[in-house]
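Task: complex structure prediction.
Instruction: return structure tokens for all chains below.
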Amino acid sequence: MNAQISRLAVFALVLLGALILATTYWQAWAAPGLANRKENAIQVVAQFTIERGKIYAADGKTVLATNRARQVNGRTLYFRRYPTRGLAAHVVGYSTQVRSRAGIEQSMNDFLTGSNENLSTVVDTNVDRLLGRHVVGNDLILTLNARGQRVALQALGRRCGSVVAIEPSTGRVLVMANSPTYDLNLIETNYPSILRTRAECPEAAPLLNRATQGRYVPGSTFKVVTAAAALESGKYTMETRKNDPGYCVEYGRRVNNYDTTSPFGSVTLFQAIQYSINSYFCEIGKDLGPGPIVQEMKDFGFYSLPPLETPEDERRASGLYKNGRMFEPKDSSEVDPGRLAFGQSELQVTPEQMAMVAAAVANRGVVMQPFVVERVVGSDGKTVTRTRRHALGRTMSAGNALALAGAMEAVVRAGTGTAAQISGIRVAGKTGTAETGREGLNQTAFIAFAPVEAPRVAIAVMLENQRGTGGSTAAPIAKQVLQALLQGP
Amino acid sequence: MRTLSPRNRELLNLIAVGMLTGLGFTSVYIARSEVVSPESLTYAVFFLLVYLIAHVVTRLTVPYADPYLLPMAGLLTAIGLTEIYRLNPDDAFRQGLWVVIGVALFSVTLVTLRHDYRRLESYKYVIGLVALVLLVLPALPVVGREIRGARLWVEIGPFRFQPGEFAKILLIVFLAGYLREKREVLAQGRLKDFGPLLLIWGGAMAVLVQTNDLGSGLLYFGIFLGMLYVATARIVFVVGGMALFLAGAAFVYQVIPRVQDRVMIWLDPWPYADDESYQLVQSLFAIAFGGFGGTGLGRGTFTTTAGTNLIPDLNTDFIYAALAHELGLAGIAAVLLVYMLVVARGFRVAMLAQDGFSKLLAAGLTFGFALQTFIIVGGVLRLIPLTGITLPFVSYGGSSLLANFVLLALLLLVSNRAVAPRD
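Output:
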């Protein structure tokens, strides 16, 4: 019988060997796929055994996100706390049990949980595991200026809108404030109360990062883009004169200035910018056609997602939209170039994109890629990675940028944007007021940078549901934030 | 150099196992309370003492028996006890009591049968009958209990046990006796000799239908086919038997919805991850999470952030998942290797045995042990449809532990006789 016994033994051992193979399959081969499945309850819990990295504002002291440890079944779990609540809610985002993640908390999750591929982090994490210590993630230091955020939110008040400030020479996002904002801690504890938020606009949408996904009509702030296209075409200088009858005729229809009662007569491009004369820009649009203007838009970053470290689905490209879809006009039959030229067509822009426009003019024509994460710091205090500045491209020659800056300075000195004047600091800006179709209500905007001679801050302020103009509503907010950023406490 | 006697070797192995147990408990203790205390070693010391008693009994009753089987069984029990302690200290206390009772039963078996276990052969029909009665017990109205859809339990007063675990061993004893006697005639392949065997097939099917469980039926019938092959060397019987089993299983599949569910979630568990296959899928996640090195004993994730259990039946049917999670591939492969070593030693005992009954008995017991391990672990790993049976020596549960101690005692008896000097 021994022959049969040994065959049966081999069979039994093969069965058990198959178990080793199957286990190897699940633990080595299939493991990464299983870890990413949404049904994986263990991964959800395991996230909370990691002490997520903290998130700080640019000063390295203001804590935007931290943890609270709690003992559950004899083990320590870490739950997120946001001491500054709504201060930078839309950038920081959240990481909770009930609603997974958003913002930087989502897109930088690998760093925050120490699961990034960086060698020193990998070594640290594995040493932690071997020694039975809990994993500590990497800290993030953002570029956001806590004081600037606070001032921006205060200035916005109960109005709906957004403020974005960028350092022109680097692309550092100094302020990204949206109103209404929400208390990040409420995501876990009282989500319905966030949804009940009310503000001075029909759709308060407190969770929306208006700065990167809002849909604003740029109005006359877009004239900066048109002016750049005109200057770059070689057909225009700041001294190019045109006659302003108070309106512009396009396809047999009149396009009026903001105030048609007092036509300017013969004006230069410089004056057209300073006083925001629609008819002049309408003529530029008819003259250039949509092609060069759309090309100029792309140079500024329109038609692609505004670059930032937040998740892609929390950003939206600026450009021409028809029926909710972005489109690129091939010729004048697809878009009204005169209206496009002064920002009244089917344009939808984000405040971040408009801040990039101001920043490009301020930075002698070169647009820098905006970023909000300054550096990633390991739990040992050493820098793991630092965001490098990166030029997206040149939007216009340095000479044209300087000329444009001069005209924009005139806007603030003695044009439509005088409300943004700061004593002792040269400010350049451009106002924008777009009718919403509802009687007396406008979307207002102001883009600016300062100081003109060596710009340190470029800013875009966009407001919804306003009864005034960009000059009277948005410019004062820009002034306050610029002061906070330039003059310090 | 003098070679060590088998019993001295057993003693040394047991001491090594005792130290491993101490390490295991200490690491769980540290993970739970962040401190080491003498308390963490109480279990290990107690555990070692119990096994030393078992060792003394083997010294007195089966001095020539295989020196590795008892320590390896001890190691598996220790691994199970450590993990159960880690999951629920109260359960570990009860399991500890079961180990004591198990060792007592082990000793009783050894002492009773120390002169000649082959006496069992002459009672084979009585034993077979008792096995049948045990199998039918859970189906009876008053005492039988159905737990989570499987009717495998008997409840008398405060006591609850799974008679199937003991029936399995009695069936093996019966088959060893019966096949030893009939193997020549059976090998000729005349139909009329197969009457009793068809009866057994019918029995296995009946068990299957009555328990609502593919696993037990597969186990009993698999053991039967394995032993039939050893006895007759006719592979055609095995093939025919398997065909019969499949036919029966197909029938059962048609009529029992629970079996259909099991097959459905085996083929594709993902669409039902929230309900029918929740347990299986979460267990796979737990195994995968372990990766190569595991989370470490006591550091795995088995509860939600609110403290409720993620996987039901973790310390019984799914203890393999818990172990794979905390020990990782490196650790769990080692555990499986221990099972393979037990199986290899068991078959070695069967090869060394001198007479047909002993050979069939040892081969049957060992094959049953291997097949049971395969069925539950294979089910957890989605190699085969999942069925709720226990992992020998490791799963929480008294019946299974006691039965396996009896199995171990019988193997040691056969082993002792095989190598003992003739007088």
